Amino acid sequence: MRIAIFHNFMDNIGGAEVVTLTLARELNGDIYTTNINTDHIKEMGFEDIIPRIFSIGKIPLQAPWRHQLAFWRFRHLNLKDKYDFYIISGDWAMSGAVLNKPNLWYVHSPLHELWAFKDWIRNTMVAPWKRPAYDLWVWFNRKLTLSYAKHIKNVVANSINTQERVKKYYSKEAVVINPPINTNNFKFKMSGDYWLSVNRIVKHKRIEIQVDAFRKMPNEKLIIVGSYEKNADQFEEYKDEIERALPKNIKILNWVTSEELRDLYANCKGFITTSKAEDFGMTAVEAMSAGKAVIAPNEGGYKETVIHGRTGVLIDSIDSEKLAESIRKISHELEENPNRYKNESENHASQFDTSVFIKKIKAVISCSESKK
After folding, report:
1. Distance CA 203, CA 265 (A)
2. I want to staple 206 with a disulfide (CB 3.0 to 4.6 A). Which of 44, 89, 106, 274 is the partner?
3. How far apart are CA 284 and CA 268, in angstroms?
4. Residues 284, 223, 10, 205: is their CA dihedral positive or negative?
C-alpha cells in the first residue's frame, strides 16, 4: 500500500515529528511537509527517512504567518491517485484532508492556539494592542478547521485527554492509540547525580517552574534538553528569559543527538516535566523506559502514563515549591535504594512500545480500506 504522511513543518524535531518519522519508517510511507531540517532528522536517528521527505514549499518562522501558510499549502496539495492512503500527523496540515482521501488524522493536539490554550495564549503571549487581531484570527481559523474536519474519515487521538478535546471542539469520535516509544532503545545504567528535563523551550512547558525549584536546591543538579525554533521571536524571547534566570546548578542543552539523549536518560537520577495540560507526553514514557521515576503535573496526558507512587509522582496545581518537595522526596528514596523505581517503570512503559502503536494503526487503516 502506498501511504503519504502530512506534517506541517519538520524544522524543529520534537515528539510529534518523531511520530511522523516513525510512521514513515514502519509503514514505508512518504512525508510531505514545508520546512525541513535534515541535520536534526539525521541526529535523531532517522537518516534513512530523509530521501522520502518532500517539501511542498517553505514558510516563515514567525506566527501566525507560519501556521496560516502551512494551512494554505496543504489545502492546495493534491496527490490524488498517487497514494492509496493519507495520514495527517501534523495538526496544521489537516487541511490536506480536503483533496486527499481516504485519510486518517492522528491528532497530537487539536490546534491549541485556537481552542484549549486560546485564552492562556491571548493573556500571556499576545500584547494587549494585538488581542483584537488575535481574536479575529482565532475566529477565522476555527471556521476553517471545522470545515476541513468534515473531510476527515478516521480520527485517532494520542491520548484520552486529546480524544475528549476532539469530541468537544470537532464533535468527532476518535480512537485512542498512544504514540510510539522505542522502549528497547532506553536502558537503566545508574541513578546519577542530576535530574533531566526534555521539552521544547516554549511557554506552555512552564520551564520557569523548574528553574525556580532548583534555585531553592543548590545541591541538586538539572540538565534541560530544550530545542526551540531559532529566529522566531516568540521562542527566542522566552529562551532568553529562561537563560538569564539560570542558577549555576542548571545546564541547558539546546540540541543533542538521539544517542546522547539515551545516555542522559540512562544515567539521570530522575525525570521532571512541568508542561501545561500536556496532550500525551512521550518524554515521560521514555524516562520510564530507562527505569527512572517521573515527576509531572497531575493533568493532561501524564495522568494516563505516570502511576503516582509507583512510577513517579503526580503533583496537583504544580508550582516550584511542590516540585522541589517531590524532588527531595524521590532523592531520599533513591539514596536508600537506587533501583526503587526501575522495574515497575520499565514494565509499565512497555505497553507504549512502537510495535503496539504500529499494530493498532495498521488495524485502523485496514478497517478503513475494507469499508471503501
Report:
1. 23
2. 274
3. 13
4. positive
Is there a contact between 3 and 72 (Cβ–Cβ < 8 Å)?
no
Threshold 0.85, pTM exceeds: yes
**Mean pLDDT in residue range 262-280:** 96
Return the H-helix or E-strand segment holding 323: helix 320-336
Beta bridge partners of 4: 30, 86
Residue 355 predicted with pLDDT over 60: yes
Give percent above pLDDT 90 in the chain: 79
Neighbours of 51 (CB within 10 A): 8
- Dihedral angle sign, alpha carbons of residues 152, 158, 164, 169: negative
pLDDT for residue 361 = 96
Query: Of residues 234 and 218, which shows the higher confidence score?
Result: 218
For the chain, list the strands marked E by DSSP. Answer: 3-6, 30-33, 53-55, 85-88, 103-107, 154-157, 175-176, 195-198, 222-225, 250-253, 270-272, 294-297, 312-315
Tell me which of 287 and 121 has the higher pLDDT.
287
**Each residue of 215-228: b (16+ CB within 10 Å) or e?**
bebeebbbbbbbbb
Helix, coil or strand: residue 208: helix
Tracing cell 500536556 back to the chain, one arrives at: 278
User: Phi/psi class of residue 78: alpha, beta or left (left: φ > 0; alpha: ψ in -120 to 50)?
Assistant: beta
What's the whole-number average pLDDT of the chain? Answer: 93
Residue 91's nearest CA partner among 181, 174, 25, 29 is: 174
Task: Give 166-196 pLDDT, tens digit per residue.
Answer: 999 999 999 999 999 999 999 999 999 999 9
> pLDDT tens, 13-45?
888 999 999 999 999 999 999 999 999 899 889
Dihedral pair phi/psi, residue 202, rounded to 5°:
-135, 160
- For the stretch 76-96, pLDDT in tens is 999 988 999 999 998 899 999
pLDDT for 228 equals 57
Number of helices followed by number of strands (H, E) in the chain: 14, 13
Task: Report the chain's terminal Cα–Cα distance, integer Å.
Answer: 14
Beta carbons of 161 and 279 less than 8 angstroms apart = yes
